[in-house]
Design a protein that fits this description.
Elements: H1 2-24, H2 30-46, H3 50-70, H4 73-90, H5 94-112, H6 118-135
Length: 140
Amino acid sequence: GSEAASEQGQEEEVIDRLKEHMDNLLDKSAKARQAALQSLRLALSSKMLSEFLLERRLTLTDSLEKCLKKGKEEEQALAGTVLTLLCLQMGSGPEGEEVFRSLKPLLISVLTDSTASPSARQSCATALGMCCYIAAADLE
């Protein structure tokens, strides 16, 4: 019994930290946003969180869009990586397709922007390819 309670307590703690990281994506400080992106990258790459993300995918997608639009090199690169992981977590259903469809034009924009950093362009290219592979309903 106490093992299950301990596990549930850890799960709630993880959820609380994820919510905090998502809130920090809207911080005015670029360093705080980058730290939040790095924490989200780690969390999304180490644990399946599809239920948590399903309810918050629009919020997270909006935050990632802002990071891609307004961020500089490292922030854009991290946002592309987190977007790829979000797409993997959402899967090939309508939710993953919605995330991909909403950010596809922005990914293409960063990818084709010759003034964007190579790391940001590479990350957006990877995100575009992976999300397209996983979630694109349109065969073209």
